Amino acid sequence: MSLQIFISVLFGTLFLLILIFRVVEPAYILLFNKPLYIHWYPFSKKLGPSQRQILVNDFPFYNRLSSKRKVYFEHRINEFVAKYEFIGKETVVTEQMRMLIAGTYVMLTFGMRKYLVTLFNKIIIYPSSYFSTVNQAYHKGEFNPRMKAVVFSWEDFLLGHLISNDNVNLGLHEFSHVLHFHCLRSNDPSAIIFFDEFNEVIKYYSDPTLNKELTRTDYFRLYAYENQFEFLSVILEHFYETPHVFKMEHPELYAHISRMINFKEE
């Protein structure tokens, strides 16, 4: 192949990619309400045997994935651990901490193409609830945009992870705040879909009729009604912990959440 032909093919390929992302994908999103593609990793990164065993032992979501999607999941965990710093406060950061925390975030964002965000750059881990000088109170976890940090009490994180049917999951809760803030500010395809569906979801918080229906079933804990941010986080905890009950009690709201994060169980 001559250099001229090679250059022509290269520019033709680039033009096609630009066409796909600027013309085809917006039309696809409009028609199907999801990005054109989610996972594409030419050189996927695998976990080590001991890291993978932690997921096999302690992460049911990972075990339910197909072999192909497990490869995607492991790659994203590797990318997460490489991007964000894990800091132990009065505790030593272990491989189990890294795998379970990274796995929770990857699980939440698994249906989104852009999943690594810049709103935080570190995970701070305390052994148990910690005293915050900001509001002079003890916390179990928080997302602190000013510090660019997500903070966890490991005791409470682990309890929320291991008890998988009580609809209380500290990791999902705090990472939901991160995702919410990111999608309010970003314009990537997944964020746009998230924001559109969030506008539908939040009606269940603000509309008196829809809200009355939620409180009638008494499915969501009262903390969901503190504000719209907590409403979304609590709902996402329920979506992952008791999806079958959620779908039965509130099918339309469940469908909005499923589209919002572009995820369906296999």
TrEMBL record:
InterPro entries: MtfA_fam, MtfA_N. Signal peptide: none annotated. Coiled coil: none annotated. Transmembrane segments: none annotated. Pfam families: Peptidase_M90. It comes from the Bacteria. This is Zinc-dependent peptidase.
